[in-house]
Amino acid sequence: MAAMRDIFLEGLPILDALEVSGSTAAAAQWMNCDQSSISRSYRRVSQQLDLAFNKDDGSYQASNNLQVLASLRQASQLRRLTRGAGHLQWMCHRDLKLPQVVAPLRSPLSCSERPRPRCLDLLRRRVLDVAVVPASALAQGVEPAITRVNLTADADIAALVLAELRYHPSLEELLALLHQQLSQR
Question: What is the mean pLDDT of the chain?
């Protein structure tokens, strides 16, 4: 079996895209490759790390070796933050119509139809760096580990981030760019 060149460039982003989107087609579109490459890669990473990463009830997730995956995701997130706003993984709620994303931002991951707790879980597990959601989805509030940042003057769109990372320069840059784009809509 061929070794993966870089787990942070090839492996984890594919697993993350599958967990967020729930679809190999959506993950392939975000990763700018074909579905068969996504399928082969996620199976190879799962096997190499003994993750038992599979689709169950419409969701992709690992069921084995979760501590290893959590450690790799934390390292991957720190790497993305160090590389800048253009490397952060963010998603936009399916009901929001954002303006066309411009450089240096990477396109958002497409989220599958999942309830709000799933989005918070993806942030906690460092699959996502930012989740952009309608304020109406936050009527129940958010837990202390997650911070809400309003992206529009009327506070109808918000970003959710881990509280411990809220003031990281890369996150600040991404939030400022999103705020600027939303102000022009």
Answer: 86
Cβ contacts of 145 within 8 Å, gap of 6 or more: 124, 162, 163, 164
Tell me which residue range forms the domain holding 147: 85-185
* CA dist., res. 42 & res. 44, Å (int): 5
Peptide bond into 104 cis (omega under 30): yes
> Are both 53 and 90 inside the same structural domain?
no
Task: Give the Cα separation of 151 and 156 in Å (integer).
Answer: 8
Convert the pLDDT of each residue in 151-178 to its tens digit. Answer: 988 888 899 999 999 999 999 999 998 8
Residue with tokens 């460092």: 126
Given a cut of 80, whether residue 109 has pLDDT beyond it is: no
Provide the pLDDT for residue 103. Answer: 60
Q: Do 15 and 65 reside in the same domain of the chain? A: yes
CA 135 to chain centre: 19
